[in-house]
Amino acid sequence: IDNIEEDRHHKKRFKEYFQKGIPYIWPLFCVDFIITAVMFVILSILFTPVLLSFIYGHSTALYIIGGIMAMVGLILTLLFTIYLGIVQKYASRILILEKNNIVDSIKQGLKLTRFQFENSLIAMLINIGLGLGFSFALLVILSIIGLVLFGIGYAIFMVANFALVIIYAVLATLVLIGIYIIIGGIFSTFIGAYWTLVYRAATYLASKKLKEKHGSK
User: pTM (2 decimals)?
Assistant: First the structure.
């Protein structure tokens, strides 16, 4: 988004943008890895007692307690997943847009998520809704195209030899995969731009809130 705004009168090629993004591959991977590792630790803490209660429990009471703990663990897992997902979105953009290091990006992502949690939660729920809608639409599109390709393949099977059918099946599969990659890439780009705008809005609101807080003192 920044590149487009700064270079709107200068047409750039995909190769140039790709080269700009290469230095951020490893830092972004580290951000994702750290947040995923934290999530794994949280899951281990939440579900280890549940597993122990089922493995070593020899009474109905322990099984009931384990079941309750499992339900609570699932709810907490959902909440932590959403929360850390927001942190990851912000930390990635802080890393690139603010040119911060990995640790500071995660710290600032946590801070921004805490200051703007309500708005960030709404943004994440919209993201989830868009993702579900996109997945359903993509499934419908691929199913329709798949049925058309299957019909063509069946017609070829009726009039041609088996080898030609195999060749057609491979080509049809590649077509479906290509459509999935292209549409999925477009949607991923849209979601990336969406979260960049959310980050900017959250940053603005957080700074405005801090100014009002300091101004009232």
Answer: 0.79
